[in-house]
Amino acid sequence: MRANRCARVCARLILLVIVTATALLAPPPPLFAADAPAAEADPPATVPAVGRAWPVGLRPRVLRGWEPPATAYGPGHRGVDLAAPAGTPVRAVAPGRVAFTGRVAGRGVVSVDLTGTGDPPLRTTYEPVTATVEEGAEVEPGEVIGTVDADGSHCTAPCLHWGLRRADTYLNPLSLLPPWLLHRGPSRLLPLA
To answer: 8 by DSSP, 3-state: which?
Structure first.
């Protein structure tokens, strides 16, 4: 009887090790369904993972993902919307130079040309934002560049719209962040029973 119980406990431990190893070795799931095709559409050479910080918070909730338009003027969503209440500090995701601060279509916008990302450089945009930096300023990853405005958001809940483009081509801003920053979170073990 005792030998059977010991065998069951050992079998459960082996199963736990196999399940844990499988979970650790499997690629992380996309943040949302629209992220999977977007990652395939942007080859790594186009968008290097130079980001070192989220623009708001430590791991904000994505309210709406990137939906590339089929044509230059077609419908889509040319960025991602991140949950962020008004007054939340907005941070530069990577090193760069502030290319623009001002209002566009009634919304406060900050744009940063990212250092070392080619010619023309990748440009991140953040809106609606009240800028705390000036055009031409050099910024480092994690440096506060403004705060989320109370007015001007196109989201149903307070949010920051974060965009990325190279010249006239819009890209998925989440592709700037390395996988360890995108999928960081606690490890979870499932019960055996």
So the answer is: helix
